[in-house]
Amino acid sequence: MSESRTRPxxxxxxxxxxxxxxxxxxxxxxxxxxxxxxxxxxxxxxxxDAVVLPGGFxxxxxxxxxxxxxxxxxMGAVTSFAGEGGLVLGICNGFQVLCEAGLLPGTLRPNAxxxxxxxxxxxxxxxADTPFTTRAEQGQCLTMPIKxxxxxxxxxxxxxxxxxxTRQIAxxxxxxxxxxxxxxAGVVNADGNVLGLMPxxxxxxxxxxxxxxxxxxxxxxxxxxxxxxxxxx
Amino acid sequence: xxxxxxxxxxPGILDPQGEAVQSSLRHLGFAVxxxxxxxxxxxxxxxxxxxxxxxxxxxxxxxxLANPLIxxxxxxxxxx
Lengths: 233, 80
Prior knowledge:
heterodimer; A: alpha/beta; Rossmann fold; two-stranded antiparallel ribbon; B: alpha+beta; Mth169, Chain: A; three-stranded antiparallel sheet
């Protein structure tokens, strides 16, 4: 590996209908990563230290949000990458895709209000020990925007206690905007290397544009990706 | 061969769409106690073997047409 390479490489998958991929690339670049888009039709992932599935409306949200995107050619490579312990972050539609793909437990349903919700929300960090939250402190409140019609997290009576016991609920809403069970805003997989969240960290990194809670999430991811890649063997 | 798949929210799963429909129907004066909204998928399948078609439809539902966490499904294959 070349001496000059100190910026981790983070792939941002672009599905037809993704619309937050540009912001995700910009935010990650700003926070110290080399971020680059990867088209959903690619059968392989280029060498990457982390993968982000961005927000949007992949495949028009037809059938169920994320249901069709999970079969995109690149998702096979993303699943293998996650299976090997690779860092994967799904934001909004990306979270829905990860749930549909079975990389995260539970599912996302239409908001209880049936209204599309678009506003800043406060999200409480339940776990500061995941690769996506190390820059935050446990109990810290991060302000980030949400903008979704189907962000109501659902886990049934068997799954939810399990998620609580294994501390997989990494982020909770301070004031539940969509009817999610247990105020869930973000969930990690059992191994802790995959996070999905409905709020948009990529839209909350620049003080000029509003709150900056998202910088702590994406910054943590950049740190973790860098550490994994450049840690002395 | 024609087949139809009915996808429904499982019992006990909150169905805000169904609630909104029920409430609208009541506003229209209909005595509706509950409404649940699902989805119908009509398919035209290749082949003529209904047993095979059923098995395929089952897999289609498991993989794509329904989310088994929150939805149940019902398959019917049209008799020739």
